[in-house]
Amino acid sequence: MNYLHAYHAGNFADVVKHLTMTLIIEYLKHKDTPFRLLDTHAGSGIYQLTEKEAQATGEADTGILRLFENMDPKCKILINSQIDEVLAPYLDVVSAMNTGEQLQTYPGSPLLAKQLLRSADRITACELRISEYEKLNRLFGRDKQILTRNIDSWKEIKGLLPLEPKRGLILMDPPFEQPNEFERALDAICLGTKRFSGGIYALWYPIKARHQADKWSKLLVKRKPEMGVETILRSELYVRAPDNDTQLNGTGMIIVNPPYTLFNTLDTVLPVLQRILQQASKTERFQKTVLETL
Ligand SMILES: C[S@@+](CC[C@H](N)C(=O)[O-])C[C@H]1O[C@@H](n2cnc3c(N)ncnc32)[C@H](O)[C@@H]1O
């Protein structure tokens, strides 16, 4: 295992993934009944953008820092007011962690979620790599709302489900170091939906070439009957033409059992985010986003 999220924290993929997670959590909060987030690939929980790993790649510059540059620095209201309300819960958490002039600290998925939870809601945060797990455990070790586990989530998924309480989100954010990572995630979702059919499952995946994402989407459709679910969303945003295998050109999420509001919200917000986060020249032509129900 070589992957360390500190090199990528706050990049465009994190922004889109964390916003999507926030939208789902905010939806779950519409009901009084408590819920749990199962974060299968939690990372270390918090990242310093000034440290050498983040500085080495500079990926946050075209992610969260780019998004903050598009905000009015005084009132922290996005210049594009259309999506201000949608982005507010996510950006409020990031802002609250950065009281100085510069944005230096960026929350990982479990910390962002923790800031959004109500007192009765819970998190299980799993991390396989011991160095990352130790940081995660230092961050949350004494927090009664959060259970940290040093486990291989793919191997242990059966025992992690159903969630208790029996409402919630399963966020799967694997590093895609293994060639069969998407297939393993599909196996986990199929097993998961058998044990916990009402859960919302959100799987992140990287997009280099579009044909790979299309192949994965076809595979997912083929296995949908095994899941016994009605709705699956495919949501993608490309910052460059997704036509080569050399770099991360886009970010994707599969959401099984999505909140009924999610399609319309993403439909509004993704094109605006794409314009802010794009890294291609203005004249370059390619499809910028994909949003479809499978
Ligand atoms: C993309 S990072 C997670 C980032 C985090 N979800 C966030 O948004 O802040 C993926 C993490 O999964 C961990 N990991 C890799 N394979 C795993 C497995 N089978 N089970 C649990 N964690 C795993 C890696 O060590 C890495 O820290």
Characterise this structure.
There is one protein chain. With 294 residues, the protein is α/β, with parallel strands linked by helices. Helix content is 40%, strand content 17%. It has one domain: Vaccinia Virus protein VP39 (Rossmann fold). It has ten helices and ten strands. The strands form two sheets. It has an eight-stranded mixed beta sheet, sandwiched between helices. The chain has a two-stranded antiparallel sheet with strand order 2-3. Strand 4, helix 6 and strand 5 form a beta-alpha-beta unit. The longest helix has 18 residues, at 210-227. It is globular, with a radius of gyration of 18 Å. S-adenosylmethionine binds at residues 1, 3, 5, 14, 41-43, 108-109, 126-129, 132, 152-154, 173-175.
What's this, in brief?
This protein is of the alpha/beta class.
Tell me the layout of helices and strands.
Elements: H1 12-28, E1 36-39, E2 46-48, H2 52-57, H3 64-69, H4 84-96, E3 105-107, H5 109-116, E4 122-126, H6 130-140, E5 146-149, H7 153-160, E6 168-172, H8 181-195, E7 200-207, H9 210-227, E8 232-238, E9 250-256, H10 262-277, E10 289-293
Helix pairs in contact: 1-4, 1-5, 1-10, 8-9
S-adenosylmethionine binds next to α7.
State the low-pLDDT regions, or none.
none
Give the number of domains. 1
Rg measurement, Å:
18 Å
**CA-to-CA gap between the ends?**
32 Å
Number of beta-strand segments: 10
What order do the SSEs take from the amino end to the carboxyl end, as H and E? HEEHHHEHEHEHEHEHEEHE
Strand order of the largest sheet: 5-4-1-6-7-9-8-10
Overall pLDDT level: 95
The quaternary state of the protein chains shown equals: single chain
Number of helices: 10
CATH architecture: 3-Layer(aba) Sandwich
Biggest beta sheet attributes:
8 strands, mixed
